[in-house]
Design goal:
With 142 residues, the chain is α+β, with helices and mostly antiparallel strands. The protein contains 5 helices and 6 strands. Helix 3 crosses helix 4. Bound molecules: zinc ion (ZN) (2 copies).
């Protein structure tokens, strides 16, 4: 698997480094994680990595397009490695759980703005807000 991740880095002309591989591996296995969680996951395999290194790696990977940063209103930024498909997110108002929602009409931007003001639109990001199944169960159990 490490070779897949190395190929991803090389494809965007990023040097293969241990922290970059560790962050990519963490995001491959865990979706929509915040920075603290990424640091904790990376430290399982690589205990000596600094917070700053993980911040820098997330920034570099996001800029290179290997990682997507999402930040629902009022929530902390989350990262995921599912990129390039213009998918959307559904967010739980109670616990902040996030799940993927596929693009509604196939490909970006998947929504037509009623007035694009002359902009060339290439992406649309929709956040659906609601209550996740766990929180809904909790609510009815009370
Ligand atoms: Zn919830
Ligand atoms: Zn997602």
């Amino acid at each position: 698997m490490a070779t897949d991740l190395e190929a991803q880095l090389r494809a965007v002309s990023l040097r293969v480094t241990r922290p970059r591989l560790a962050v990519l591996a963490a995001l491959r296995d865990h979706r929509h994680v915040d920075t603290d969680t990424v640091i904790a996951l990376v430290r399982v395999e690589y205990p000596t990595v600094s917070q700053q290194t993980v911040y820098d790696v997330l920034h570099a990977l996001t800029r290179a397009g290997l990682v997507r940063r999402i930040q629902p209103a009022g929530a902390t930024a989350r990262y995921e490695s599912r990129v390039g498909d213009n998918h959307h997110h559904v967010v739980c108002r109670s616990c902040g759980a996030i799940a993927d929602v596929d693009c509604t009409v196939g490909h970006a931007p998947c929504l037509t703005a009623s007035d694009d003001h002359g902009f060339v639109v290439d992406e649309a990001e929709v956040v659906y807000w609601g209550t996740c199944p766990d929180c809904a169960t909790e609510r009815t159990a009370q």
